[in-house]
Amino acid sequence: MTTTAPPDPAELLHIAVGAVRRAAGTARAMRADAIGDVATKSTRTDIVTAADRAVERLVVDHLHEVRPGDAVLGEEYGATGTGGGVRWLLDPIDGTVNYLYGLAPYAVSLAAEVAGRVVCGVVHEVAGGEEWTAVRGGGAYRAGRRLAGSAVVELAQALVATGFGYAAERRAYQARVLAQLLPEIRDVRRFGAAAVDLCLAAEGRVDAYFEKGLNVWDYAAGALVAQEAGLLVSGLAGAEPGPTFVLAAPPAIYPALHDRLVELAAAGGP
């Protein structure tokens, strides 16, 4: 009986980085043209451009060429491929509204999942060229420097990043939650790209991050970067991170922030 060794996460990361860097070049080159080809997704504020589709197609084609048996789940075209032990999770342009307006950050985010577990990920911020990588059990890095998250120990001193959904009802609910939390933290930042938010938390450039309503391609790579930097990444009240909620915070402030978000029913609402 023969057995097939599981894919090497470091090799998968090498493939991911190559694909993402090519995709970032395409996104950068297409930005001006993409503004002229705008459609809408779920609401008028959820914008999708020609560049989203082009970047996703480029990455999917590259992955299927290099690893033809793998599955890919992307934001624009959904699931492609037949599987084979690896599933790639792709957000072609995380921060599409920023991209449309010519604002940073916006990023290409790609993670590889083996047996239902993310084993590596890369987030490439296109406007500034910053790139974060992680391999499960091997740490998180940017520009060759290993990341360790924030050293903050008090919630009152925490700079917290968050984001808002596109539907008006959800945004209103999230705003009410944030209004109650805001007096209890140092301040809040809203950058508009969840994958980048998670990487900034991993680097300690913000102290923590939370958001409701993310899809798996939004957070898969960034969440692994945060975890490998030593942050706790979860949902609320014992839940795994997922569409209901994603929280990433260093261990020193995680309990206080988590419990306050539970009290505020941050995972509730529309």
Query: CATH-wise, what's the superfamily of the largest domain?
Result: Fructose-1,6-Bisphosphatase, subunit A, domain 1
Distance between the termini: 52 Å
Shape: globular
Number of helices: 7
- Major β-sheet annotation: 8 strands, mixed
Total beta strand runs: 15
How are the strands of the largest sheet arranged?
4-3-5-6-7-8-9-10
Q: Over all CA atoms, what is the radius of gyration?
A: 18 Å
Number of domains: 2
How do the helices and strands follow one another from N- to C-terminus? Answer: HEEHEEEHEEEEEEHEHEHEEH
CATH topology of the largest domain: Fructose-1,6-Bisphosphatase, Chain A, domain 1
Q: Would you state the CATH class of the largest domain?
A: Alpha Beta
Structural class: alpha+beta
Residue fraction in strands: 25-35%
Q: What would you say the CATH architecture of the largest domain is?
A: 2-Layer Sandwich
* Poorly predicted tracts of residues: none
Can you tell me about this structure?
The protein has helices spanning 9-34, 50-66, 96-101, 168-181, 194-203, 216-228, 254-263; strands at 38-40, 47-49, 71-74, 78-80, 86-94, 107-114, 117-125, 131-135, 139-142, 145-146, 159-162, 187-189, 208-211, 232-234, 246-249. α1 runs antiparallel to α2 and α5 (194-203) packs parallel to α6. The termini are far apart. The protein has 7 helices and 15 strands. α4 (168-181) links the parallel β11 and β12 (187-189). The radius of gyration is 18 Å and the shape is globular. It is of the alpha+beta class and 270 residues long. It has 2 domains: 9-146, Fructose-1,6-Bisphosphatase, Chain A, domain 1 (2-Layer Sandwich), CATH 3.30.540; 155-263, 3-Layer(aba) Sandwich (D-Maltodextrin-Binding Protein, domain 2). The strands form 3 sheets. Strands 4-3-5-6-7-8-9-10 form an 8-stranded mixed beta sheet, sandwiched between helices. The protein has a 5-stranded mixed beta sheet with strand order 12-11-13-15-14, with helices on both faces. It is 36% helix and 25% strand.
